[in-house]
């Protein structure tokens, strides 16, 4: 447990660094910074996804399905090799962008993620391998591996038809779609189902089967939404809309059944954790409604024309659904103590920046003025994110010293 707490703090430090890079990106609009904006974007996104989310999520999966001292001697090699690749990306992407050295580290990371997938599938607790929760996590790991086709394709695309090709962006969108909507969201759902299973809340076979197949079908179909910016056949809108509707129905069906166990959930979670679970559920539903809206041609064109809508949606998923779910699970397992002050500051920064980002998109659409103080306010809102992470980190250091 103590080792996994250290791993969790490592993940949180990555989140802090990614958040600070995010503040630097906001500052580009107000002051002159002698570094390449695109390079910082690459560093920010890689450390956020592969540092914070990946390390936190894999730590939780190890805790849930392995957590045996006899296996840690093998796992630690995978963990520390992964950290070398992440630190390598941290010190290369913000300064040189996509060059040979940064590509080497990102490629090595892919091999590290494959090793982790193999490790979990091989050494996962036998008594859990037939559980509903493990089925979700197993498929989530499959989506993570599938998403890596995108990075592999980038090299071939850049060396042949070039980065200006539509296939370059499609490879990136392929990676992001199956990372966000496949790997991250489904793994988190699996981990939350595990908590229910351990407290004798078993989903009836027909309820789980309906959710599982519908949700996964939705993941596949909604990838077509990532191609709408190329103005393809209207069939892509239909498939994306159908996938979105199927996913909403799947999540509502799951939520409806779980809500019947509300009294048990309140005993399982602390008051704070239950509120976190409720918040995550609302954010996930809104995410899927936004996904459905983008299947309508008018809104699909808006998302393609005004990049703030896309950034707002991605941050809604990453900073809202995914990060708050990780906070909930890590607080529950006592891998991290999510201080109430840190959480309030984080939520304030999240709401504030989301409002400002979506407002900028609407201002562009409606030809509204955004005001002279807009970017300074956005910087201040963005600063609340690293401040909140620092507060949580300090709370965990104090907790460690008090043990």
TrEMBL record:
UniProt keyword list: Membrane, Transmembrane, Transmembrane helix
Membrane-spanning parts: 45-65, 77-97, 103-121, 141-161, 173-195, 207-228, 234-255, 276-299, 311-329, 341-362, 374-397
Keyword Lipid metabolism annotated: no
KW Membrane (keyword) present: yes
Protein known as: Cytochrome C and Quinol oxidase polypeptide I
């Amino acid at each position: 447990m103590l080792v996994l707490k250290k791993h969790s703090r490592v993940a949180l430090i990555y989140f802090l660094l990614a958040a600070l890079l995010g503040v630097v990106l906001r500052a580009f609009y107000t002051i002159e910074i002698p570094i390449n904006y695109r390079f910082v974007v690459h560093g920010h996104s890689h450390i956020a996804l592969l540092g914070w989310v990946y390390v936190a999520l894999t730590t939780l999966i190890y805790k849930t399905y392995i957590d045996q001292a006899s296996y840690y001697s093998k796992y630690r090699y995978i963990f520390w090799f992964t950290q070398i690749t992440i630190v390598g990306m941290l010190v290369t992407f913000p300064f040189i962008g996509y060059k040979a050295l940064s590509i080497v580290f990102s490629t090595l990371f892919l091999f590290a993620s494959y090793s982790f997938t193999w490790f979990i599938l091989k050494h996962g607790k036998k008594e859990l391998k037939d559980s509903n929760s493990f089925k979700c996590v197993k498929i989530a790991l499959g989506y993570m591996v599938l998403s890596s086709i995108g990075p592999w394709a980038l090299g071939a695309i850049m060396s042949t038809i070039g980065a200006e090709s539509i296939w370059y962006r499609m490879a990136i969108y392929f990676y992001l779609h199956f990372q966000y909507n496949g790997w991250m969201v489904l793994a988190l759902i699996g981990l939350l189902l595990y908590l229910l299973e351990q407290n004798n809340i078993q989903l009836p076979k027909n309820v789980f089967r309906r959710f599982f197949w519908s949700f996964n079908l939705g993941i596949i179909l909604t990838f077509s939404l990532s191609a709408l910016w190329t103005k393809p056949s209207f069939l892509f809108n239909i498939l994306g809309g159908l996938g979105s509707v199927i996913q909403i129905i799947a999540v509502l069906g799951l939520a409806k059944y779980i809500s019947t166990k509300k009294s048990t959930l309140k005993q399982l979670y602390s008051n704070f954790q239950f509120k976190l679970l409720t918040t995550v559920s609302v954010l996930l539903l809104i995410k899927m409604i936004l996904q459905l809206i983008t299947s309508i041609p008018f809104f699909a064109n808006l998302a393609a024309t005004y990049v703030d809508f896309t950034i707002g949606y991605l941050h809604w998923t990453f900073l809202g659904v995914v990060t708050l779910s990780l906070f909930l699970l890590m607080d529950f397992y006592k891998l991290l103590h999510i201080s109430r002050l840190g959480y309030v500051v984080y939520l304030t920064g999240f709401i504030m920046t989301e409002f400002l980002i979506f407002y900028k998109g609407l201002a562009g659409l409606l030809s509204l003025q955004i005001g002279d103080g807009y970017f300074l306010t956005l910087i201040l809102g963005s600063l609340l994110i690293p401040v909140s992470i620092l507060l949580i980190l300090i709370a965990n250091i104090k907790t460690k010293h008090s043990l």
